[in-house]
Amino acid sequence: MNHLSHVLQLPLPEAEYTQTIHCPGTIQPHGVLIAFSTPDCTILQVSSNIQAYFGVAPQALLGQPLSVLLGEPQAATVQQAWQENLGTANPLNLAIPPQINPEAINDAEQIGCQNTGEAANHSTNFLGIVHCLEEVALLELERSQPEDELHHFQLERQARQAIAKLQRTDSIDAFLQCAVTEVQRITGFDRVIAYQFDTQGAGCVMAEVKQPSLPAYLGLHFPDFDIPEASREIYRRCRLRCCPDLTVDPIPLVNLEGAEPLDLSFAILRSVDPCCVQFYRNMNSAAFLAIALIKERQLWGLISCHHQTPKALPYGLRHTCELLGQFISLELFQKVDRAELDQMSRFKALHSEFIESIAHTDNLSDALVNPAPRLLSLVDAQGAAVCIDNTITLLGTTPPSEAVQDLLTWTDTQSSESLFFTDSLPALYPKATEFKDCASGLLLLRISKVRRYSILWFRPEVLQTVNWGGNPNHSLQVAPDHQVTLCPRTSFDRWQEIVRFTSLPWKSYELTNALDLRNAIVGIVLKKADELAHMNRELERSNRELNSFAFAASHDLKEPLRGIHNYSVILQEDYEPVLDAEGMDCLSTIVRLSQRMDSLIDVLLRFSQLGQGDLNFKVTDLNQLLQQAVEVLQASRTDASLDIRIPRPLPKVVCDATLMGEVLDNLLSNAFKYNTHDHRWVEIGFLTADEQLAQGLQPQSPQPELPMLFYVRDNGIGIRPQHLEIIFKLFKRLHTQEEFGGGTGAGLTITRKAIERHGGRIWVESSYGEGSTFYFTLGALSS
Fold this sequence. Notes:
Layout: H1 5-8, H2 14-21, E1 26-27, E2 32-37, E3 43-47, H3 50-54, H4 58-61, H5 67-70, H6 72-84, E4 90-96, E5 124-132, E6 136-143, H7 148-167, H8 172-187, E7 191-197, E8 203-210, E9 221-222, H9 229-237, E10 240-243, E11 251-255, H10 274-282, E12 287-295, E13 298-307, H11 315-359, H12 364-369, H13 372-377, E14 383-388, E15 391-396, H14 401-414, E16 419-422, H15 425-428, H16 436-439, E17 441-448, E18 453-459, E19 464-469, E20 476-478, E21 484-486, E22 494-499, H17 508-574, H18 581-610, E23 617-621, H19 622-636, E24 643-645, E25 652-656, H20 657-673, E26 681-687, H21 689-695, E27 709-714, H22 747-757, E28 762-767, E29 771-777
Parallel strand pairs: 24-26
Antiparallel strand pairs: 1-11, 2-3, 2-6, 3-11, 4-5, 5-6, 7-8, 7-13, 8-9, 10-12, 12-13, 14-15, 14-18, 16-17, 17-18, 19-22, 20-21, 23-25, 26-27, 27-29, 28-29
Helix pairs in contact: 7-8, 7-11, 8-11, 11-17, 17-18, 18-22, 19-20, 20-22
């Protein structure tokens, strides 16, 4: 979470700082640094305090072999160290001889002074640390004390005790508190804190142990520029940084003319940047030790130790703290990972249950929103919006649908990725301030861009009071030319800031859950599409076989049925005197049933023919087809009250004229057949796309145009709601055969089949007792 967005908009001088922090050209004065070339061990640079340690002027050593200073045996030891352990630090115990061989130097008088004191009589013990760069090696020398070896065993025992205590702690907070307590016990620093960085680089003090007289920093936040990125990068590579005395001046390096600045990133003696020195002094610290906490090669935080007076930091203590820091990192992040794993396991179980329910449903939208809490719990949100095409379903606490639609349009301009998220939506989208109470945080998942399937999760604003260690704005000074200078704050008193328009941040496993949901939905949809395609292929094959069977069966049944009918008529005509009344009734029934059977076979034959062969599509004037249908209807009916209304001429369409003629015949004849009014009327018309939308007859569609909609409306007997689909099924009748002039019950079935062959659809709206309206389209073929 970025608590200082108003500050971070200023351009910090990071580039200049990055160039100087690892190549300061100076070291701390408690040791000596020598840079020499490899493999010939020629001295290239030395710290200017080498004369105080060895009584040799720095210039006298430049260009000379390392053995001039160390002697042949010690120089060989150093050379072997960098050869065997290229790229690492190698601690060595070195006994530097009391004087230098004057013959090894071209001008012996360059020595400038004689070794004095203890060094003039016997060798001095030093701890040497070798670092290898590409073509240069660094040798750092610090005086070692006789008691260091004894102190080493004491430190080892203390470290073992600390590790045992840390292993017994469970919670992360208790672990961090135990860590700073043990580091303070081992090092003796006045203050030790555990400092964690957030995702934007700002830090917070998570644990602290200190002298009672010192002000407390526990819970305070520090801006990201307190530890610039260049410093963080060095911490990622070199896990320990220390300075035993911040009150002394740094020692400059002396180098051969034209030598490149030395990269001292891994040098223990590297001097502290002046800005950092002043920062610690303003905290009343004269010495510090910092241990990096590294998680997956990223800087998670620091254990930072402060002391009010200068404090010796021998190698054994530093080495123990570095090893302890590595153990703390490993143990801490095991606990962090375990806590996250427990949370992830809970979410995974919910995710699996969710996906299983989606896999067994035919309606994706219903499966996502029912039951409502499940979708919200998947990413720990308080509201969600499921967007399927142009339909938006809201769950929980959300902005209005119109605001969600606007938000979707805005996000399309921000990112094309499957996942978009922010915990401060108003900072990116100012309109979100209107609904900050429910949507200061946004997580958008795009399931499909083609169909515009999306899920949006929302989190409300969480007002936060952030306690800073001093006003972070005071760390930046802006000159009249708008140049920004980073400078240390002079006060670290608690300074509060109210953070608004932000939600709780989205955790990484919550984002993973969202992406997993998308992948699962896509997989399920693809699988169902494959299954549906297979079913369609099977259905097409079955339909072809059924149509072929129906055609063959209908054709073959015709001949025996015709024989039954003809012989029955002959019996009626020739054997009437022989048969009694009951026999004649039986023959009449046979004749009537055979005629009925013949009609049904004709219908079945016609229905099978509709599924076979290609249609003859051509531009057809529907007015001509309608006129023909009206003439047929008038010829078969003598009802004077027959009223056919055509509000406006019908358009020309691309269709099969024969099938469309049947459609109009069936719809017109049914409209008059199923009508009991004295004055019967039928209206035939059409609606354009705009007229459909205006009347709400079609849902809005992303397609540029809706197909033209035709209708046949009557004032007949109407249809009950439960029968609106039944009437389109083959041989399904709502009345007895004797009512409304009989019929086979196949006219509307054939009509729907004909419409579907044109790529359209047909449906009916009706008010029982008042009339019905049949709507149909012809799909893209009518355009």
